[in-house]
Amino acid sequence: MFTITTKKSGIKARRSLAGNIAIFGFVALLGLFSAFPFIFAVITSLKPIDELLQFPPRLIVMRPTLNNFTDLFQLASNMWVPLSRYIFNTALISIVGTVLHVLFAAMAAYPLAKHKFPGKNLLFSIIVMALMFVPQVTFIPQFVLMSEMNIVNTYAALILPWIGASLGLFLMKQFIEQLPDAILEAARIDGASEYKTFFSIIWPNSTPAIMTVVIFQFINLWNYAPKELIFGESLKVFRMALEQIVAGDPIARMGAGSAAAVILMIPPIIVFVLLQRKVVETMTFAGIK
Fold it and tell me: 241-278 b/e with 16+ CB inside 10 Å = b?
C-alpha cells in the first residue's frame, strides 16, 4: 500500500493508488453507514401504504409517491390550531433556549476555567456527575420547581430547565482552559474589566466550542416534547402536533407518520451540516482530557 522513494532531501513515503482507493472506499462506507438512518427514513416516507406494511421492509421503493406528505399537511389543516403555530412554538423554544444556554454556559465556564475560588473542584465534579443522569431522572424535581414558580403551561417552563444544561457548561469549560493566560493578563493590565475580558477575548476565541454547544442544544430542543408541562394546544410544539396526527389511526396514517419523521429530521441536519466542522475542533480541545 505504501511505497518509499529516496530523494536528495531525504526519504519520503507516499501511498500507492491502491492504498488511496482502499482508504476512500473505507471512508465512503463509514459515511454511508452514518447516513443510513436518514436515507431509510426518506425511502420509507416515499412508500405507499401497501409497501409500508410489507415485512421484512424493503430498502427500495417500487412505486414512490408524495401522497404521505400531502396527507400529512391535509390532516394538519384540520386541526384546531394552525400548523404554523406549532412550528413557531418549536422555533421559538429552540432558538431562545439555545442562545440563552450558550451565553450562560460560557459565562459560567469562564470563572471555572480561569479563576481560583473555594469549592471550584467540587462544583466541577458535580457538573461532571450531572452528565450521567438522563432527563427522566430529573424530570420530577424540575416539574415540582416549575409548579412552585407557577410557570407550568408557559414558554418559560420549556426554556428555563435547558439554560443550565451541564453538557454545554462542561464543553465550554474544557475549551476555555486551553486559551493562554497571557492574553487575559494583558487585558487586565490594560484595565479591562472581567465582562470586557470575557466578551472581547473569551467569547470570540471560543467560537468552535460555542458552535458545538449550539448543535447539541438545538437538536435537543427541536426534538423536545414536554407533554407533562404543556396542556394548552396553542403552546404545543411541532413534534407533539405530529404525534397527535399519527395517533388518530396508527395504521392508516403510517405514511403520514413516516413523512413527519423526515420533516422533524431536516432542521437539525441542516444545523449540523453548517456547523459540524467546529465539532471536531472542540472535541480535540475538550477531550476529552
Answer: bbeebbeeeeeebbbbbbbbbbbbbebbeebeeebeeb
Q: Which three cell numbers stand for residue 278?
A: 467546529
Length of the chain: 289
Angle ∠(167,150,83) on CA atoms, nearest 5: 70
Q: Is 209 exposed, middle or buried (0-12, 13-18, 19+ CB in 10 A)?
A: buried
Question: Within a 10 A sphere around the Cβ of 197, how many other Cβ atoms?
Answer: 20
Peptide bond just before 267 cis, omega within 30 deg: no
DSSP states of 167-182: HHHHHHHHHHTTS-HH
Residues 158-174: pLDDT tens digits?
A: 888 888 888 888 888 88
Contact 157, 148 (CB under 8 A): no
Cα 87 to Cα 99: distance, rounded to the nearest angstrom: 18
Helix (H, G, I), strand (E, B) or coil at 3: strand
Cell of 18: 491502491
Q: Determine the Cα–Cα distance for residues 197 and 174; give it in Å rounded to an integer.
A: 18
- pTM for this entry: 0.75
Residue type, 194: E
130: burial class by Cβ within 10 Å (0-12, 13-18, 19+)? middle
- Which contacts qualify for 49-53: CB closer than 8 Å, 24 or more apart? 49/252, 49/254, 49/255, 52/254, 52/255, 52/258, 53/254
pLDDT digits (tens, 9 = 90+) for 228-250: 777 777 788 888 877 777 776 66
